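Narrative of activities, Objective 1.

The group set out to show that a structural description can be obtained from nothing but a protein's sequence at a throughput compatible with the screening campaign. Below is one input-output pair from the validation batch, recorded exactly as produced.
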Amino acid sequence: QVQLVESGGGLVQPGGSLKLSCAASGNIFSINAMGWYRQAPGKQRKLVARLSYSGSASYPDSVKGRFTISRDNARNTYLQMNSLKPEDTAVYYCNLEAKETARSTAFRNYWGQGTQVTVSS
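Output recorded for this entry:
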């Protein structure tokens, strides 16, 4: 069973920075990619950053140049968010595309419980 636990959310003023962390645990045989999504009230969940296991990162235009995704040698993923705007306010979710065993035929999506980020003066 794979578990993801996010931390680092909170209240920040416009122009400020926050760093989110995601720790993965459990049975993980292989990882395809790690990512961060966000969901604002009344809106769909959207991708904000994705990092393939080979190290290729991608971002939507709305956060490009302000957000940076990274990972360490363990199973931790980070999202550095700079120059935050009120429109960045949302619940942020960690995502993992992984296989639990060598017999798994496809990568599955795993989600954390979410962490609130509020950008307001």
